[in-house]
Amino acid sequence: MSKLPQEEKFLDLSDYGRPFAALIASSLQNTRFTPIHVTISFVVSGLIALVCMVNGHYWAAGFFLVLKSILDAADGELARLKNTPSYTGRYLDSVSDIILNLMIFSVIVLISDTNIFLGITAFLCMQLQGTLYNYYYAILKSQKQGDTTSRIFENKTPKAYPGERQSHVSFMYRLYTFLYGGFDKLIYKLDLSAPTGKSIPNWLMTFLSVYGLGFQLLLISLLLILGLKSYVAPVIIGLTAFLPLFIFMRKVNG
Question: Do 65 and 221 form a contact (C-beta atoms < 8 A)?
Fold first, then answer.
């Protein structure tokens, strides 16, 4: 199931794993497996990728990073199939992503000649890129009656969905805002008018999807496999140069 109505879908370069994610979700639909179980599985896949990186098994690392991306899509697919939306799961997904991303760049610093300052900068750039993409995607979903679990502005604790505890939602929301709040506030300030502007065109969302986590993990995997581990941080940092251009194009078209 798509996050957007079929007629509103765009070519999402970060969502290459969606067909596999849909297959996994459909196979789990009538089982006791929950979306949170799938989220935990993508964390395990990410951790295995890190172990492979440390030991120089870059093909395996690339495989598990891509698998992590597929499973990252599968938890949302399963939630939609089972009709069990969850803010707890939504925030757990995001918190897991940012921690794994930090660990990825920590390992990059460890296994290459990337200095720690460059590694931290690349991590911050990666998160900022992802925040812009998710911000515009949340706006598009809101405008096109798509998935509503992701909110445009995460400025207050949401009310728990039926079947989840408010205490869990409140805790995960506080953890999410601690980790993501700075990135969110910066992107909001850079383009505060986006939610009230015209619908973001599909072609722009396709360009923006290079900032999606799936595409970023695929890019990191390819660089590792090609023996270019020292280029991971510079490439991710370099992609940030397009961020002002994307915001400008959104404003021109909005």
Answer: yes
C-alpha 116 chain-centroid distance? 23
Q: What are the pLDDT digits (tens) for 25-62? A: 999 999 999 999 999 999 999 999 999 999 999 999 99
CB-based burial of residue 88 (10 Å sphere; 0-12 exposed, 13-18 middle, 19+ buried)?
Answer: buried
Q: For 132-143, what is each residue's pLDDT tens digit?
A: 999 999 998 888
Give the separation between CA 210 and CA 77, rounded to whole angstroms. 21
Sign of CA dihedral 219, 92, 182, 115: negative
| Structure-token pair, residue 160 | 């728990």
φ, ψ of residue 253 to 5 degrees: the values are -90, 0
Q: Tell me the angle at which helices 87-111 and 58-82 cross, rounded to the nearest 10 degrees.
A: 170
Whole-model pTM?
Answer: 0.93
At 36, the amino acid letter reads I
Query: What is the distance between the alpha carbons of residues 79 and 81, in angstroms, rounded to a whole number?
Result: 6
Q: Are 156 and 181 in contact (CB under 8 A)?
A: no
- With a CB cutoff of 8 Å and minimum separation 6, the contacts of 97 are 72, 130, 213
Q: How many other CB atoms are there within 10 angstroms of residue 109's CB atom? A: 20
If one counts every other C-beta atom within 10 angstroms of the C-beta of residue 9, the result is: 15
For 148-204, what is each residue's pLDDT tens digit?
A: 567 788 889 999 999 899 999 999 999 999 999 999 999 999 999 999 888 889 999
- 215: Cβ contacts below 8 Å, ≥ 6 apart: 13, 14, 16, 209
Domain 11-253 superfamily per CATH: CDP-alcohol phosphotransferase transmembrane (TM) domain (1.20.120.1760)
